[in-house]
Amino acid sequence: MQEFDAIRPYSDEETGPAIKRLVNDQEFLDMVGRFKSPTLARWAPAVLRVFIRRWLANHFGQYHRVDDLQASLSSYVGELVDGTTSRVTASGLEHLDKNSAHLFISNHRDIVFDPMVVNYLLFQNGFHTTRIAIGDNLLANRVFAEMMRLNKSFVVRRNMTSPREMRDAYLTLSGFINHSIDTNNSIWIAQREGRAKDGLDFTDPAIIKMFYMSRKKSGLSFAEAMNRLHVVPVSIAYEYDPCDEDKARELEARARTGNYTKAEGEDTDQIMKGLTGFKGHVHVHFGKPIQNAPDDAKAMSALIDREMHANYHLHASNLVAYHARGVHPDAHVTPDTVSDTVVTAEAWSPAEMEAAEAEMDRRLDACDPAIRPYLLDMYANPVVTALEANSDEPNPE
């Protein structure tokens, strides 16, 4: 693993020392304190730090293996999931082999909660958790970087300037991902760089090409290399997005000015909002592992997208937004016609539709009129892609 030292997560040997560093890190203690006791954190932070340090040392100081640490943290993750959702459901897990590694390629809605909920569902159902791909822009915060590397996260470098630097970085990343699968360690990675703020989930072929880079010299064809990765398309569907207004504001600014500059600490703020904000019903669909991959990256991307769109679990919030936009040729569709067409859609009751309409109106009223169309689109677009995917040929297996 030495060749991957710059990007890999912490090993078991590094787990104990990393935990010790965090337990004695004032910034980390203050962050945990704000979670556990916001009032005391405001009025007596030094006192709270003493108690938090003691609590962390007693509960986590004895761990020296990543899997043991994650198992211990699972109950706290469960509390976070339960406290910020109305329910979490999953489908498709019956198609996965618990003794095999998979490359989970997922749509991307939330910076941290996406991989968290995938790993939570895998762990709860007896699977090993995944190694998580995160952008290096998220590692600017030293404490967050330490926490993520303890949680099986590896680094995807971004904003490289020279073609050679980019090639070398992607080759290392490709080698790490393939090495992980070869050594029976699953991977979670988003289908493209950054979150799909507009609700349109499409895989970047450049990411698919990157997977193959380290396999070229081995003589494997592209299709053979993809088949060895056991690619699983994953669809994550939130009933409500805690960051929807922030995303809509960014989309409007980009449309109006051509660019958007993040404020200092914006990523950290949205991580916290995504973790702690209410999401309603969250559903995760795990597709069947792709066994007969096509022989080029664009076709592979399209195959992943069809599986992802066809199995996206539509919520009443999606249909309400779809109707409100009223710009699509099939905007007259009803809950019954959607659920008849899209396998993963629910047949909502009139009361559920009314509740969704009221909640969508509340969200729209709370934001600037200029950004309302963008907020509606991010909820409406999954209906568009799901209907398109299910009107095509049967889903490939």
Task: Describe the secondary structure blueprint for this structure.
Layout (H helix, E strand, L loop, with lengths): L11 H12 L2 H11 L1 H6 L1 H16 L5 H19 L2 E5 L11 E4 L6 H12 L6 E5 L6 H9 L2 E4 L6 H20 L4 E4 L14 H9 L8 H8 L1 E8 L5 H14 L8 H11 L4 E6 L10 H14 L5 H10 L9 H7 L8 H16 L6 H20 L6
Parallel strand pairs: 1-7, 2-5, 2-6, 3-4, 3-5
Antiparallel strand pairs: 6-7
Helix pairs in contact: 1-7, 2-4, 5-6, 8-9, 9-13, 11-17, 13-17, 14-16, 14-17
Record keyword descriptors for this entry.
397 residues; seven-stranded mixed β-sheet; 17 helices
Number of continuous helical runs: 17
Structural class: alpha/beta
Are there runs of 5+ residues with pLDDT below 50, and where? none
Residue share in helices? 40-55%
- Biggest pleated-sheet summary: 7 strands, mixed
Topology pattern, helix = H, strand = E: HHHHHEEHEHEHEHHEHHEHHHHH
Strand order of the largest sheet: 1-7-6-2-5-3-4
Indicate the radius of gyration in whole angstroms.
Answer: 22 Å
The overall pLDDT, averaged over residues, is 93
What distance lies between the first and last C-alpha atoms, to the nearest angstrom?
34 Å
Overall strand count? 7
What characteristic shape results from the CA principal axes? globular
Query: Strand percentage, roughly?
Result: 5-15%
